[in-house]
Amino acid sequence: MIDRRALLTAGAATSLLRYTPASAQPADWAQIERAAKAEREVVVYNTGVGLHRDVAGAFEARTGIKVNFLDMHASELRERVRIEQSAGRFVTDICLNGSTGSIVMDQLGQFQPHGGLPNEANLLDAFRDNGTRISIFQNIFGFMINTRLVPLSEEPKSFADLLHPRFKGKILADDPRASGEGYATFAVTYDKLGVGFQQQLAKQELVFTRNLLEGAQRVARGEYAVYFPQKFSDYLLLKPLPVKFIWPTEGSPYQTFMLAMARNAPHPNAARLLMNFFLDPAGQAFYARSGRGVTVRGALDDVPAEIRDALSAKLLGTADAAREAEFLKLAKDIYGA
Q1: pLDDT digits (tens, 9 = 90+) for 241-278
Q2: What ranges make up the beta strands (E) of the chain?
């Protein structure tokens, strides 16, 4: 298992040794800022949630550059970019996606190097970027239960507990058969807990959704007893309702979200400026306060203790991008096409 607290501490110590790339020195950056403001806007294809708009709003207030979002599922984002680029239509500047999808798109040649960012110096050592993709936060997953449907004595404490007959037909889950949070959790639990766990879970007659926000709300309304994978950050928004977040005893799957500049981005300077802002303390503060794992030094310093301690929970692992096709096929084999 991964000790997140140790990871953050070690990263803070080693990241002081970083250097700022020559292409991102302040003298050069002033020229990029002027060019970015002349471009006036930046387009982001996004698979995340509304919080990115809060970061973008702060960016707009600082720079005067408009950020235009188009939201979609992870599998849709990759295909949309493929179709547009194949047709010679270069619409988006930045793709904001999970690490698995981002790595695959990078391998497919759908991105271009960002050219260096001053705030790369803030990155924890575990989240070094490769010159193209930058890690901006982590979603950490557990379960969410409706406390009116699941009494204290019957709460699932582990993935294994989800196999109890009492939960048959009562679990709503993000669909693991397409890239996204459900897939990421499937890949980690298949790898760590084995095929037997997934085969037994399939017998629980899970109901799948691809609407992440609505899924959690349906459990809060009492349509289902359990939702997973549930992001801790989204749970915090639902706390006044009859819901409870469960950290699985085996550890929590997690998914790192990344930004990358699309190939032939129409507003490359504005894109570069926005990517840099996501690593700025002002940008990272939105993620830290919302209950997401962060990727830069000092981002948790001013976060309430409840959230800081929760983000130190044991981690189970993250999906291996190189095995995406393998795990998607396995998910379809187990749960049906």
Answers
A1: 999 999 999 999 998 899 999 999 999 999 999 999 99
A2: 41-46, 66-71, 94-98, 111-112, 133-146, 171-174, 207-209, 226-231, 243-246, 252-262, 293-294, 315-317
